Structure formats: C-alpha cells, structure tokens
Amino acid sequence: TERKTTKPDFSVQPHELSCIKKVIGIVSGKGGVGKSLATSLLAVTMNRRGYNSAILDADITGPSIPKAFGIKEKAMGNELGLLPVKTKTGIDIMSINLLLNNETDPVVWRGPIIAGTVKQFWSDVIWNDVDYMFVDMPPGTGDVPLTVFQSLAVDGIIIVTSPQELVSMIVSKAVKMAEMMNIPILGIVENMSYFKCPDCDKEYPIFGESHIEELAKEHKIPVFAKLPIDPKLAAACDKGMIELFDGNWLDPIADKLEK
Ligand code: ADP
C-alpha cells in the first residue's frame, strides 16, 4: 500500500476565475485563544493599507468571522461558482455560516467532510482579486488542519497563542507541522498578553509573564506582536464592528507581510 506523505500536493486548484496573490494560514494550538480575532484584525489592517484582503473561514465547527464583521446576508452563487460576501469596508469573506440557513445550528460533521468543505471554499468560490487571503484554520495540529494545509497553497503561517497555554509545546508542534510541509512561519501573535489600565496606562500581565520573545528567538520566527486584553475588542466582535478597531498592535506582522 502507498504510504501517506506529508508533502503538500496542493491538489486542489483554485477556481479558474480566482486571482489570489498571497495565502496566509492562521493557526492555534487550541480553540478560544483569539485566532479568529487575530485573523480579522490582520485582514482589516492590510485592507487599511490599501490591499484587497479576504478571509476564508476554515474553522468550520466554530465559525466566528461573519459575526465579527456583522454580516447578515448569505453567500450567493451563479452558474460559474460561489461568490464571497463583501464586508462594509470591502473585505471578501467565505464561511460556512454564510451558507447555512440557521447559523446557530451546530456543524457536527466528521473530519473528511469538514476538510472537503474547506477545499470547496478554495475551488468553488470565485475569489476575484485578492492581494492577501487569510485562512482562519481549524484549531490544533490534528487531521483536519493537516489536510487543509496539504490541499491549499498556503504561502506562510502565523501562530496565535496566549500566555497561559503550555505555549512552547504548542508552538513546537505548529513549527513542526509547518516544517514538514515546507511552509514558512511568518510571525507569532501573543493574544491576551496584558491589560492596560485605562486610568494609569500601566500594563498588567493578567495571565502571567510573556514568553513571546524567547519563543520567537528559539524557533527563529522573524516577528511577533502582542495583543492586549481589551473589552473594546470583545465588544467590537460581539457587535459586528471589528472593522472599527483602534490599535496598531499587528503592525510588525503587517510590515513583514508587505515585504
Ligand atoms: P478562537 O478563534 O481562537 O477560538 P476567538 O477569536 O473567537 O478565539 O476569541 C474567543 C473570544 O474571546 C471572542 O469572544 C473574542 O471576542 C474574545 N477575545 C479574544 N481575544 C480578546 C482580547 N484580546 N481582548 C478581549 N476579548 C478577546
């Protein structure tokens, strides 16, 4: 029998009418660390810099992108393919929640079906003119993210962690997965890194001291960024107004992406 290889075959071709310049996968060791928030902020940041950005929401079992952008309408298709939905500022989005009639229905599909859906978001969606596509990956380093990485032509990875995780282990796993597939790790985002007191501006490391610098050095990850715990960010996600966020936290990573 044939041995499974971990080499990417990029077997899934994008739609013939798609034009996507760079594809960035956003990964995390587990759910709930702020991967979707970081994905949204990156797309908004690049959009503000004048690039056409897009989000492919591959987090099928926990799709939170449409809500953060306040998208109410459903995705439409024509005889050629499926069309992404545009946000208020013009970011193209595709997510399972834009296809389900009732977006509160849980998606209880098995791995292969989930991976197949993500592949279709790549092959059947007309991504018209995209400078930067951000893929909100399924969390973890299991079968589903692996299949997704093997079938989509991802140019680089950004890892999202939080200080309270057993960070180094999770980062090591993500680094190994990326190495196996020859995908460069472009940067690492530490979310919920600190809380800045609105009265005195002092920064408090609520979840413990940051390890991001050591980690970046240890794994030779070129840039890193820290996101504060910010009730305004949570509220913006909740209200579908993430495009209005105020902060330049991800600039180091955005600079790196521009190069
Ligand atoms: P993941 O995609 O890793 O599962 P999310 O990005 O959906 O995680 O974040 C989980 C929840 O935590 C969301 O409700 C989000 O608004 C909130 N959250 C994440 N990061 C922050 C932050 N830095 N400050 C405030 N709230 C945050």
Structure keywords:
259 residues; alpha/beta; Rossmann fold; 8-stranded mixed sheet; 8 helices; 12 strands; globular; disordered N terminus; binds adenosine-5'-diphosphate; ATP-dependent FeS chaperone activity; YlxH/NBP35; Mrp/NBP35_ATP-bd; P-loop_NTPase; metal-binding
Strand order of the largest sheet: 5-6-2-7-1-8-9-12
In round numbers, the mean pLDDT is 90
Unreliable stretches (pLDDT < 50, length at least 5) are 1-5
Q: Which ligands accompany this protein?
A: adenosine-5'-diphosphate
CATH superfamily: P-loop containing nucleotide triphosphate hydrolases
Description:
The chain is an alpha/beta fold. Helix content is 30%, strand content 20%. The chain has one domain: P-loop containing nucleotide triphosphate hydrolases (Rossmann fold). It is built from eight helices and twelve strands. The strands form three sheets. The chain has an eight-stranded mixed β-sheet with strand order 5-6-2-7-1-8-9-12, with helices on both faces. A two-stranded antiparallel ribbon has the order 3-4. It has a two-stranded antiparallel ribbon with strand order 10-11. Helix 3 packs parallel to helix 4 (143-151). The radius of gyration is 18 Å and the shape is globular. Adenosine-5'-diphosphate (ADP) binds at residues 28, 31-37, 62, 64, 191-192, 227, 229-230, 233-234, 237. The site of adenosine-5'-diphosphate has 18 residues, from helix 1 and helix 7. Pfam families: ParA. One of its GO terms (molecular function) is metal ion binding. Binds and transfers iron-sulfur (Fe-S) clusters to target apoproteins. Can hydrolyze ATP. One of its GO terms (biological process) is iron-sulfur cluster assembly.
